Amino acid sequence: MQDVEESRELIEFIRRSPSPFHAVAEVRRRLDAAGFSYLDEGDAWHVEPGGSYYTTRNGSSLVAFSIPADLPAGVHFQMTAAHTDAPTFKLKAVPTLEGPASYVRLDVEAYGGMIDSTWLDRPLGLAGRVLVRDADGRGATSRLFSPDRDLVLIPNVAIHFNREVNKGYAFNRQVDLCPLFSAGELRAGDFDRLVAAELGVEPEAILARELCLVNRQPGRVWGWADEFTSTPKLDDLQCAFASVKALLAAGTPVGHINVCALFDNEEVGSGTKQGALSTFLRDVLVRLCGALGLGQEDYLRALAGSMLVSCDNAHALHPNHPEKHDEANRALLNRGLVVKEAANQKYTTDAFSRAVLRAVCDDAGVPLQTFANRSDSAGGSTLGNLSNEQVSVHAVDVGLPQLAMHSSYETTGTADTALGIAALRAFFSRDVRIRGAEGFELA
Ligand code: ZN
């Protein structure tokens, strides 16, 4: 069954992406294999019509693009955006807490808004990047770090010591959520020695590290009919995976430039140099235009005819809590991509952008469904409206349906990854010719 195949590949993609740095490395590996060329932000860019390229920022955000072989006058961009980060716990600079007794614990703080309880009593790993001094002592190099081992665990307090735990217990993150690192075999100073040994360097060579906890529970396709797929970090690596797969499947575009953006730091507001609020996407598009011999006027004309599909996962109807959802505008598992709309414009979807995506997907025979929050509950925020502050274009907010968003282990429909790829592939494959806000044609 094709759906199971896509879901198993998604699980493997997520297993290889324990941090945003690893996610970008994994996407790079796939783009390189597909013949994309890497452009360093610090180099002069030379691009050719018919070529495919990508660049990265901070090693944790990436923008890839494919240029048509015949560059039309009045070219435009058809773009997707997803995010590489997920809620987790980050290690502090002094990484260990000594005691009580001979215990050593890690000192972590929350990155993003997770469901705390889902991080307890399960084997956890560590992943991220480490800045290591070069052997000649003159410079340093960023190295990926993700030992394939269960390294720490956050133990619950026994119910005998906390009879209230089933009545809605609030975890204190400074007290309750410190991962256990050693029972006494290791001391606090051993932490960097272990990191150094893993990287094959001397402990003194480690200048800085940026590590987060990783849920080591492997992804699974499950249920009597294999209907469900569960893995850590579906939000938003499922959309990152789907958008990259769609970009590759669409091949060389005709009439427009396809752009696939992956941003870090969505879970903490996107306000970093590599986040959706940064100049990253705009810088890439401006430089791409320049490298194609197009000027500022061409760039602005291109934006007027461009469109962004902002991809960030959506809440599927919860089986135990249907009352949390709007009765008419609610999404179901295994029914494909969800268009999200909100009157407060936290989602960028409007009638125009919904119509474009609807027309594209109708023509391709790919289903779309709709989500809106209950009118008495505030929704979350996402990428599209933030990205639009730097690159202002027609945009629609979508996501794949999932349960338990921001749990350390999330669940989607097994059919949904393939349906998401099909919808985004249809968007990349059609040439959407936009006439301001008056209408559009699909070529
Ligand atoms: Zn998200």
What CATH first level of the largest domain would be assigned? Alpha Beta
Segments where pLDDT lies below 50 for 5+ residues?
Answer: none
Number of strands: 22
> Strand arrangement, largest sheet?
1-2-3-13-4-14-18-16-17
Q: Give the count of structural domains.
A: 2
CATH superfamily of the largest domain: Zn peptidases
Q: Which percent band covers the strand fraction?
A: 25-35%
For the sheet with most strands, the description reads:
9 strands, mixed
End-to-end gap: 32 Å
Helix content: 10-25%
What would you say the CATH architecture of the largest domain is? 3-Layer(aba) Sandwich
Number of helices: 9
**Which cofactors or ions or other ligands sit in this model?**
zinc ion
What is the CATH third-level topology name of the largest domain? Aminopeptidase
* Backbone CA Rg: 23 Å
Tell me the overall shape: globular
Report the structural category.
alpha/beta
Kindly state the mean pLDDT as a whole number?
96
Account of the protein in words:
The chain has 9 helices and 22 strands. By secondary structure, it is α/β, with parallel strands linked by helices. The protein has 2 domains: 2-86 and 232-442, Aminopeptidase (3-Layer(aba) Sandwich), CATH 3.40.630.10; 89-215, Aminopeptidase i, Domain 2. The strands form 5 sheets. The protein has a 9-stranded mixed sheet with strand order 1-2-3-13-4-14-18-16-17, with helices on both faces. A hairpin with a 5-residue loop joins strand 11 and strand 12 (228-231). The longest helix is centred in the middle third of the chain and has 17 residues, at 234-250. The chain is globular and about 70 Å long. The mean pLDDT is 96. Bound molecules: zinc ion. Residues 83, 235-236, 266, 312-313 line the site of zinc ion.
